[in-house]
User: What shape does this take?
Amino acid sequence: MPGRKVLLVDDEPDVLDTLHSILSDEGYEVETAHSGQEALEKIEAFPAEIVLSDYMMPGMCGVELLHNIKQRLPHIIPILITGRGDMKISIESINQGQIFRFLLKPWNNQELKVTLQTALQYHDVIIENERLTTKVKRQSNLLDEIEKKYPGITEMQIEADGTILLEDEDFSDALRTLHVKEEDDFSKAK
Assistant: This one.
C-alpha cells in the first residue's frame, strides 16, 4: 500500500518493531508512538489514515486515545489491538471510541493485513462520500441561483420515453449565463 499512512501506538517496543516491520514490508508509511500522549503529538504532523493502538498503556488507554483522535480528525480509521480478550473491553471500545476493528494479540499477520486494507477502503469511501456531498451541495446552490434568475427553469417535463421537454424561451440566455456551450459544441464532445 504505497503512500498509505499508519500510526502505530504501543508501550511495548518489541510489538511496535514487529508491527512496523510487517507494515513497512507491505509498503505502508509507518510512524510509531510509545504512549497516547506521544501519539496525540505525532498525529498533528503525520497525516495518518489509520491509527492502530494497543488497549493497555500507561497514562491513557487505547480507547481514550482513539476517541480523542477521532473527535479531532474524523477521517482517521481507529483500530484497537490488545492482549486481553475481554468482551466488555471490546464492546466499550467500539461504542465509545467508534473503533473500526478490534484485534487480539497475538495477531494473525494475514488478518492484520486484510483489516488494514478493509480500513483503507472504508476510509476512501468516507472521503469520496464527502467529496460527492460537497459537489451536490454546490450544484444545488447553482440551481437555486439559476432558478432565482430564471424562475421555472429547473422544472422539467419528462415524456414517457425519457425525453426532457424545455419550454423556457430564455433557456439559451440561461445557458450563456452559465457559460455552457451551444448544442453543436456539445455534440463535438461526444
In short: Residues 150-190 form one domain.
